[in-house]
Structure formats: C-alpha cells, structure tokens
Amino acid sequence: MSPHGSKARQREETRRLLITLGRELFAERGYHAVGLTEIAAAAGLTKGALYHHFGSKAGLFHAVVDDIAHEVASEVSTVADAEATPWDRLRAGCRAFLTAASDPGRRRILLVDGPAVLGWHEWRLLDEATSAAQLTEALATLVEHGVIEATPVEPLARLLSGAMNEAALWIARSDDPARDLAAANRSLERLLSGLRVDD
What we know:
The chain is mostly helical. The chain contains 10 helices and no strands. The protein has helices spanning 3-29, 36-43, 47-54, 57-81, 86-101, 104-118, 120-128, 131-144, 153-172, 177-193. Helix 4 (57-81) packs across helix 6 (104-118), helix 5 packs parallel to helix 9 (153-172) and helix 5 (86-101) packs antiparallel against helix 10.
C-alpha cells in the first residue's frame, strides 16, 4: 500500500474512532454535558486533532447524527426488503423504524439533541436523505400500484414520519418499552390500514 493510502486509512480510522466515542458519550449524557477535551482524551488525541477532523463539537455531533440516521435507515431497509409486497414492506419498515429509533441512546441523539443542536432545517435535511426518503418512496410505490388512494405523497410522508418520531420518543421514555412498542405498533397498523383503498 502507498504511503498516501496508508495515511488516508489512518485518517478514516481516527475519524471513525472519534465518531464512536462521541456517540457513546452523547448518548450517555447528552450533547451539552460532553466536552471536546473529554472526547479527545478518550480517543488518546489532542483537541487539535478533533478540530482537524470535524472543525468543532457541533461538527462531530453532525457526523454522529448522520451515522445513526444511516444506520437506522439501513436496518429499516433490511427488514422491509425481506417482505414480498409493497404494502408489507411499508408496514415492516415502519415497525422497524419504531424499534430502531426508540432505542434510548439513538433517541437522545437523533430525536432530542439532533434538532436542537443542528437546527430544524439541517436535521430535516439529514432525515430526508435517509428514513424520510425511504418512507416517501414506499408511499409513492403504493400510490402507483393503487394500494392507497392517489394523494400527494410529500405531506403524507411528513405526517407519518412525524407520528413515528413522536411515538419513538414516547417509547424511549417509557418504564416498559416492550409493552409500549407493542401498543405503538398496534396503533400504527390501524393508522396505516386507513390508507388502503380496499379497506
């Protein structure tokens, strides 16, 4: 391997380490309670190295949120793609999102601190590039196949996305997450079934 390739790999490994450690600390204590010095020390690096890779604590946090958003989208896609029909893919994907996003660590970073730290517009851009994009595509496919009524997909996707984000926040704060996840899934099934033409 060339020296250039070795340095690029080392930079990526350092970047990945900082994202991993930042994610652990942000999930445990929240964005505002974690300092750059603490993250750098946990990685065995200087604050300067962290600034070099991310520019600021907010830059590192943005990378952490982006990482989690893509991770959740990947999990949702894997579950949805295992289903045979577009309707079952939507249902399975929505359930998978609730399960993935209601994890307390993810919930704190993705749904609580994410919009507050990044700002609503920036947070929405990340969401629209991942989970919201999947949901919009799934709904468009169902409209195209006549499974749900011909309706503007964009507002429908935002309504469903908002409902699921709120449900994930509720589940993550629950004293019995398994019970409330099951309850949320039952309510979600009723909500989705109202969209079907044949229902």
